[in-house]
What does this fold into?
Amino acid sequence: MRVESRENAGARRPVGLYLAGVIFLLVIIVVVAGSFVRPDPLTFVPTPVVPRPPAEYFVVDTVTVDARDGSEWVYFDFDKGSAVAGPLAGWDLAVNRYHIIVNGGAGYAGAGGAIATSVPWAAVTEAPAGGYATTEGTVDEGAATPGLEHWYQYGFFSHLLEPKDETYVIRTAEGRYAKLRILSYYCPQATPGCMTLLYGYQGDGTRRLTG
It folds into this structure.
């Protein structure tokens, strides 16, 4: 009886190994197949650079900043609702490819800051009085604003940068307030470098972030 039990056990062992091998092979096939499936990202055409008169009330808008040229930063001013010619024109955010910073911190002329929150856009109705992160480093040496720097998740299979489900509260260079969502990082034809921002900017100087 003992001999028969050992023989039965020996017969079952290869079957188990074969089954494990088949499962492993299926997993590899799924992983490899998934690496070739690239979903189409949400894309936007860059917004023309057309500065407008300063807003005196709460304004909601969407803008696509063309930051495809990694050799230079593109500057955006909430007050003008547009990208601006350069840092001397006054700015609140600067974008370089997937990097985004505020005009605030050591070595910066503005009072800018940022807070990242998981609170839904509509529920962010007032900017906090404090707790804002400012930019560290210079635009020539790897500038980064904590909270804004890691606005994305990297898609392992898609190889795309996907915006996190976060709302950012921004203190502008002039000490006013805005709320911000990052919608996409892609231009048409899935070209990276077009940072599309949904924002609500309060032009009256209060911390109220609703119309």
